[in-house]
Amino acid sequence: GLQRFCIEHSIKLSKIGHIFLSRVCSETTGGLAGLLLTLAGIGDKGMSVDIYGPPGLKCLIDAMRTFVPNKALLHTQIIGPTSTSNGGAIFDSEILQEPATSTSNGALTFDSEFFFKEPHAIFFNEVMKISALLLRPSSYPPSNSSFPNPLASHSQNLDGAKLMPGDISVIYVVELHEIIGKFDPKKAMELGLERGPKFRDLQRGQSVQSDKNITVYPKDVMGPSVAGPIVVLVDCPTLSHLQQLVSLQSLNSYLDGGKIVSCVIHLSPSSVTLTAEYQTWMRRFAGAQHIMSGHEKKNTEIPILTTATKMAARLNYLCPNFFPSCGFLARPDIYNGEQHIIASNMVSDPSLSKSVAAENLLKFHLRPRSLFGLDNSKVPKLLSHAKVIDDLRLEIPEIAESAIEVSNLWNKSESNLPSCLENITREEMEIVFLGTGSSQPSKHRNVSSILINLFSKGSLLIDCGEGTLGQLRRRFGVMGANDIVRGLKCIWISHMHADHHTGLASILALRCQLLKGTSQEKTFVIAPTQLKNFLDAHQCAEDLNMQFIYCGRTLDVEWEGFESYHKEPESLGELTEDFKIQQKLKKMLGEVGLEALISFPVIHCRDAFGLVLKAVERHNTDGKTIPGWKLVYSGDTRPCQKLKDESKEATVLIHEATFEDKMVDAAISKNHSTTKNAIETGEGAYRVILTHFSQRYPKIPVFEETHMRERKTCIAFDNMSVNIADLPVLPKILPQLKLLFPKEVEDEDEVEVEEFHDV
C-alpha cells in the first residue's frame, strides 16, 4: 500500500505534482486511486496533478472519476498513439502525441512511430528535461478481453493477436540541465570590457563588443560547463519486450560512451534482467550505477510496514490461534518459485559491479555534486521477530502469563453452542480480516477487506480496499496468497466508496495471470453498477476475466423471482442473459457449499448493501441434519431494521463500528454506526465482530465495558483469522487484547482527509 508506506515514513504526499507511469496495469496503478483521493483532500481546493503514461491511461483515469471527486484536479498526458476519429485525441492537457494516420474507421495506424523510434521531450522546467520512448513486445499474446482496445487497430502480429495498452511500457530519460561554467571577470577586463551590462550578457550566452573593438564570445570568459547528470528508467516486463529493447537505435546516444548516464533504474523482473542479452545491454551504459528494482524479491528481515509488522508479532505472541501470522514472511517465500525460475540462459554478470538491489527509501543524489551517488541512510533497519518479542516482554511483563491463559481457553468445554457448530471441523470456514480500518489506510490498519476462506472449496472476498493483495501476502506468504487468489470464486463489494474497492483490479489481474494457459472460470464480481465502468475501462489495459453482477440482482426478491422462473418448464429455453449469469452464480455457490448469497440495502449512500451468506446443511455420522452456518456483514450503515432482522440467529455478525459512543453526531452525519449501535443490532446473533474503525483509534477502539457483558462480542484486527470452530472462544480473548493496547487517540491531522475516501 503506497499510502500506508508514506504514512509510516512521514513522506509528504502534498509535494506530488507529477506522476509518471511506466505502464497502465494494476501493477503500476494499484495505489493511484487512493493517492488521488488523498491529494484531493489536501488544502481548501485540493491539488492539481499531471499524470503521464502510455495509451489506455486516459480511459482509466476517466473511469476513476466515478469515485474520485472533482476536487481532484487531474490532467492526463498520453504518451504515444491512441484511437480517435480525427487522428489525434485532445486530452485534459497538452497533446503528447504527433498526429498519426487515420484509417476510414477512425483507428490509428503506425505510419507515424515517432515515440517508438526516438525519445521525445514530455516535460521541461528550469531544472530538468524528461523524455519518453515507448517499448512494445515483438509479439503479442492473444487477449481474452472483449472490451474496446484503444490500440486494437495499431498493430497485429501474424497470429492475429492484438496489442493491449498494458503491453506498452515507457522508458523515461531524465536529464538535468548543464551547470554553466564560472564567469572570469579578470579575463573579460583583459579583453577590454568593464563591469556592467556586458558582463551579464556574456553570462547569458551572448557575444559582445569590447572597447578594444574585439568581439568577445562567452567561451572566451566562461569556465567549462558541467554536463547535467542523466537518469534512465527502464521497464522491460517480458522477454518479448527485451527483443525490441536491445535492437533500439534511438538510445545509442546514451550508450557506449556517448552521453554519460549516471544512474539506470531497472523495473524489469529478474526473468528479464538476469538473461545474458539484458546484461550485455546493461554494460553499454559505461560507468552508470544500476539499481535493480524487480518485484520478485520480498522484504523479510526488513518489512515494508514496520509498525504493522510489530503489531502482528505482538498479537501472534498473545494468541497464535487467532493471529497465525507473525508479520514476517518465511524465508522460502523470499522468491515466488512459480514466477521466478532462473533458467540456464540466465546469468549474473560479475562485471556489473555497480549494480545494487533496490531498497525502500534508497536514494541516488544527483545534486549537489558533494552528495552525488547512492544514499542508504534512510533505508529501514533490520527488524527481527525475536527483538520485537523481547521488547514486548520488557514493556508488559505480565504478557507471558496472559498468553498461557489464552491458550488454556481452548481446553474448556462450551455450553449452549448453536446447532450449526455441532461437530464442525476446522476445514469448514475461516474469516480472515485483511483490513479493519475506515476511510484510508493507516500505520496500524488497512482499509476494508474480508476473506471468507472455504479451504478446498475456494474462497470469497467481501470488500477489497487498497492493499488487499499485500495483506494476503502478509497473512499467507507469497505462494500461499497465490493459492488463495487462484481459488477465488467471488468478490462482493458493499458500496462505491474507495476504501472498499480500489484493491480489486490487482486481485483480478493476478488471478488472470496465475491461471494463464488454463481453462479458468471467470471470477464473479458482485457490486454496485458504477464499479462496472471502472472495471470495463481497466480491461482495456489488461485482462481481468471477471463476470460482473449488480448487487441488486442478488436481493432476496430477485432470487425468489429466479427460482419461480425455473419452475416453469417452458422458460428453460428462453433464459435472458441476466438469468443465465444468475444461474452460473447459483451453480458456483453450490460448488463451494453455500446455499445462498443475498444482498440487502442498508443506510449509508446510494447503492449501499449488506450481505448474508448461508452454508448448506450438513449430516453427522448418525444421519442427523445439521443446519448450515449463517454469516451477516453490515457493510457501512446506520442502524437499520433489515440488518437487525437478518442478524437474528446468525452464527456471526460482522458489523462496522466506525465511531465510539460519544461521537453519535458524527456517526449520524456520515451514516455510520457507533459501537453501541453495532452491539444492539447483533443482539440476536451468536457472535458479533466489530470492524471498520475510524483511524483516529490507531490500535484498539474506544468502547464501553457495559456493552461487552454478554461475552459475545470481539474486536477485529488486521490479519486476524477466525476459524468457525473457534467462535465459542473468540469473545474471551478481549481482556487480554486490551492489555496489549492501552487507549490511544490519533491526532486529528492524521484523519483530516477522511471525508474524501468515505463520503
Automatic annotation (TrEMBL):
<dbReference type="GO" id="GO:0042781">
    <property type="term" value="F:3'-tRNA processing endoribonuclease activity"/>
</dbReference>
<dbReference type="InterPro" id="IPR036866">
    <property type="entry name" value="RibonucZ/Hydroxyglut_hydro"/>
</dbReference>
<keyword id="KW-0540">Nuclease</keyword>
<keyword id="KW-0378">Hydrolase</keyword>
<comment type="similarity">
    <text>Belongs to the RNase Z family.</text>
</comment>
<dbReference type="GO" id="GO:0005739">
    <property type="term" value="C:mitochondrion"/>
</dbReference>
<dbReference type="GO" id="GO:0046872">
    <property type="term" value="F:metal ion binding"/>
</dbReference>
<dbReference type="GO" id="GO:1990180">
    <property type="term" value="P:mitochondrial tRNA 3'-end processing"/>
</dbReference>
<keyword id="KW-0819">tRNA processing</keyword>
<keyword id="KW-0479">Metal-binding</keyword>
<dbReference type="InterPro" id="IPR047151">
    <property type="entry name" value="RNZ2-like"/>
</dbReference>
<keyword id="KW-0255">Endonuclease</keyword>
<dbReference type="Pfam" id="PF23023">
    <property type="entry name" value="Anti-Pycsar_Apyc1"/>
</dbReference>
<protein>
    <recommendedName>
        <fullName>ribonuclease Z</fullName>
        <ecNumber>3.1.26.11</ecNumber>
    </recommendedName>
</protein>
<keyword id="KW-0862">Zinc</keyword>
